[in-house]
Amino acid sequence: MERRLAALLLVAILPIALLSAPAYGGGWAWPRPLPATPSLLIADEKVPEEPEEDVKHFFKSSTIYGLKGLTPEQKTALLRLAAEQGDPGAQFRWAERLYGRVKAQRLLPATEGSETSLGEVLFWYQNAANQGHPGAQRRFADFHSAGEGLERNPKEAARLYRLAADQGDAQSELRMGTLLEEGIGVPKKPEEAIVWYRRAAKQVAFPDVAKEARYRLGKIYAKAQGRGSHLTDAYMWFDVAAKEGHKDADVARLKIEKQLSLAEIVKAKRQAREWIEALARKTPKAKEK
User: By the 8 A CB rule, do 18 and 81 touch?
Assistant: First the structure.
């Protein structure tokens, strides 16, 4: 009974402990050691007999089960604490939130003393990227590519995009195709670009990325030397992208039509339909409720 009362007391003081955590703003420094915080599975409103030791464990379980009964301020405090304890997912989400503040400050400056620095944003992205988080690797590559907050470094950007793309990050797959096609930060290799574009073209969970990858496949085949199969392949990919609403692909498809015979057009359209149907068969369908 006494143990149960003690556990319930921990539940009662958790929101207060989270809110009392000092704000993390201004400059940026290495995360400081944090006191142990109990981890709760709130899904069935039961208290584990042996609470977890870290906030990051609570962060992970609460991400799965939902944060019931916590205010937005408490959720923010929990996210920050989990990031400081080294959880890469929390670090990435915290960096995304801070970067949103930085971009908002460019439109409407924050009050003095409440500004969020780009250096702090980069700190959290880099920490998550160093732990292999693909989204953070892509974001940090974006900063190197644009020279935002960091010295512009196309080679380092390409390295980070490749790390994220190897983990299946859709935007990084598309970016690798572009870098290899244009020779930015890496040697120009159109054949390898096609491989990455094809991978991105299958990312149905990211329709904008997939649509753009299909369009770029059409462009790269259209620029290939020789007529014949290259133009047929280009028409096929433009047709696939156009069916998804890509306007430039629709225009490009009409231009290529003038260079193809009726038989070649029919063949390309059949290949486009077969590719879409094959992809649909391989894509897991959402379970019906």
Answer: yes
Residue 219's alpha-carbon distances to 38, 82, 176, 228, 238, in angstroms, are: 55, 45, 16, 15, 8
DSSP string, 41-91: -GGGT---SS--S-HHHHHHHHHHH--TT--HHHHHHHHHHHHHTT-HHHH
CB-CB contact of 190 with 181 (8 Å):
yes
pLDDT value, residue 221: 95
Q: What's the pLDDT at 111?
A: 80
**Token output for 257:** 């039509």
Candidates 178, 173, 146; CA nearest to 161 is 173
The continuous run of DSSP H or E covering 248 comes out as: helix 247-257
What global pTM score does this model have? Answer: 0.75
Backbone phi, then psi, for 116, in 5-degree steps? -105, 125
> How far is the C-alpha of 63 from the C-alpha of 82, rounded, in Å?
11
d(CA 107, CA 111): 13
Q: Would you tell me how many other CB atoms lie within 10 Å of the CB of residue 36?
A: 10
Q: What is the mean pLDDT of residues 141-160?
A: 97
The two structure tokens encoding residue 12:
């009662």
∠ CA 123-62-94, nearest 5°, is: 15
Question: Which residues sit opposite 1 in a β-bridge?
Answer: none
Length of the chain: 289
185 contact partners, CB below 8 Å, separation of at least 6: 145, 154, 155, 156, 157, 158, 159, 179
From residue 120, how far is each of 28, 91, 151 by CA, in Å? 5, 11, 16
196 to 30, 82, 104, 169: CA distances (angstroms): 36, 34, 34, 11
Displacement of CA 162 from its chain's centroid (Å):
14
Specify the DSSP element, H or E, that contains 215: helix 207-222
